[in-house]
Amino acid sequence: MxxxxxxxxxxxxxxxxxxxAAEQPLDRRKTAILGTVVYEYIAxxxxxxxxxxxxKYNLGISPATVRAELASLDEEGYLDQPHTSAGxxxxxxxxxxxxxxxxxxxxxxxxxxxxxxxxxxxxxxQLDSIVDHASHVLSSLTRNIAFAIAPxxxxxxxxxxxxxxxxxxxxxxxxxxxxxxxxQKTVNVQADLDAEAxxxxxxxxxxxxxxTALRDIDLEALQRLACQTPLPADLLRHIASILAEHSExxxxxxxxSEGAHNLLDQQEFRDLRKLRAxxxxxxxxxxxxxxxxxxxxxxxAKVSIGRxxxxxxxxxxxxxxxxxxVGDSNAGAVGILGPRRMQYARLIALINCxxxxxxxxxxxxxSSTPRE
Amino acid sequence: MxxxxxxxxxxxxxxxxxxxAAEQPLDRRKTAILGTVVYEYIAxxxxxxxxxxxxKYNLGISPATVRAELASLDEEGYLDQPHTSAGxxxxxxxxxxxxxxxxxxxxxxxxxxxxxxxxxxxxxxQLDSIVDHASHVLSSLTRNIAFAIAPxxxxxxxxxxxxxxxxxxxxxxxxxxxxxxxxQKTVNVQADLDAEAxxxxxxxxxxxxxxTALRDIDLEALQRLACQTPLPADLLRHIASILAEHSExxxxxxxxSEGAHNLLDQQEFRDLRKLRAxxxxxxxxxxxxxxxxxxxxxxxAKVSIGRxxxxxxxxxxxxxxxxxxVGDSNAGAVGILGPRRMQYARLIALINCxxxxxxxxxxxxxSSTPRE
DNA sequence: CGTTGGCAATCGCGCATTGAGAGTGCTAAT
DNA sequence: ATTAGCACTCTCAATGCGCGATTGCCAACG
Lengths: 372, 372
Hints:
Two copies of one chain form a homodimer. By secondary structure, the first copy, chain A, is of the alpha+beta class.
């Protein structure tokens, strides 16, 4: 079981410096009211008025007093009013205050934890599949969009390579790192491929590269090892590029996202143009990748709300991200994208659970039950 | 260049028998009017009235006469009227008549043909990637949903297998058929895996299964070959299941679909519930698979319109499918799903081009330029 | 002085009404 | 058989109205 404050600690506070006045804590009553408004709005999706607030929650004060406090919170920028005769809705700042200080950490059910564990471990040894499964299960559990990047290989170590002859101009390359299956690719080459030579070269690599960090293997290293074997130059280039694109921060084919159809259910996306904008963003991958990349720099789950996000198109969304480690350093990240009105506590619990599972998996300790 | 009637021949007429009266050709003038209405409606999306018809097209008759004919076509079931004071819209039967008899075959631009060719061949030797690319390029060119199944392996022949040791309880299996890379999978086993034994067993398989049809390799055959090697029973079962699930009509992991976001642009899906219904259908895969499977039974492109489709949810959609061959028999299929108001001629041309490319590819003649 | 009940004022939303426009079907004339 | 004319029907967008929800303010209260 998590202690009440653990989640707060694990939520990165790096953005706090940019928040103009969030460090000034609100007085006790304002705090209670703001928290209740955010909670109620997240639950119902309807703007919250003073009547609802006093009827559904036992605040011990009258609607009139609540109104005064609401007006004050509105003025200070924690709440918005869609229009004069409507209730209040949290602003970015209101959500931020709620996430940083008010919300109670949520605990997952055993089924949920188990489902995450199973899904992540079902694809063990296939890095791409793992993150694919990870985003799949997260999108299904949260009914939001989940996305993830496969781990960079920079910290991983060469264990095995296999070069499979397909025909005179094509070979299949399978690269295995210390963590399991790292990469695989079919490549076409100009020159004629000799099946024997492929086996021979693979043997050579396997003997001499054993234990080398993948980032240290470049084209020259490969050429040196293959100088006795009649291996086409472009095949070597392909192998080198597999290594490079996985240790560098290359995007292509490394980003997985899932669950776009979930947005259809969210009432905030009834407007098709907004929906379209988000889908285009997914297609482009650039923005999501940037978010995940940012998340690599710090520890723990990070929440980005509305205009804190890099794109104006996402100003009505929030994103929760968390990095995961391979060995001792962050190597990849997972994120959840949904409307600002999302269940932050639950999503943070889920994504932390996911990170724990991934961390355990990439420590070679795939079957252990992680914390909590 | 295609001759004017070629497309007609290539459109399978198998469903004709079920069409109650489509075989009765309409008279010349009705034909012209029906064709124009369908053409105009596909182009604009607006119900077509007698005025538009006489103004935009040179029919040589007055609006009043056109109205009489429209009323008659309406009565015979070729046209529908959204409401009394609107123009006419094609019914399923109207579209069917148009597709079977009226529409002019379309020719693709050189860019389009080249784009398909490049995309399909860019992933040569990786069966899954090929169909994935195929549906990707089709969805992008048509702005509809494209879907495809990877070829069954029943007609393919064993060429090579590789068993790669990952750790004591995991191995990566790569299966290569005469057509190139056929399947790959990472499996977990209970018993301890020995790296030497894996290499040995793979060698054994490679020697003795060379040239065997994949569908003829069952668990017993594998056991017989591996009896001298200490290979865990569940590893053999995994290998057998890879063979089985690809030669049988297994669904899982074999269906690729792409381009769901394109539906957002279609005005007929402004209603979110309809959109949702279609997305759920995609998720389930069952219906799409069934459509493709049906398509394997006949030759050439097949169009299914509205209620001709198996599900009521698709009654406002149409689907174009085409099988492709491996060797001499149909082994897979590609489809395009969109609103009934789709550019049938263009989609048929595109999908036929795709089938031609796939056919050429799976004849080992990957680089040749297929018939337009 | 903080809190509260009362109350007028404001605004969005749903609903009925209305008028314009588009298209039809009918009929009588050619 | 074809056509022009015309009354009719129906949708759609705009308009206006009343209801309900909520607020902000004020005066009274402890």
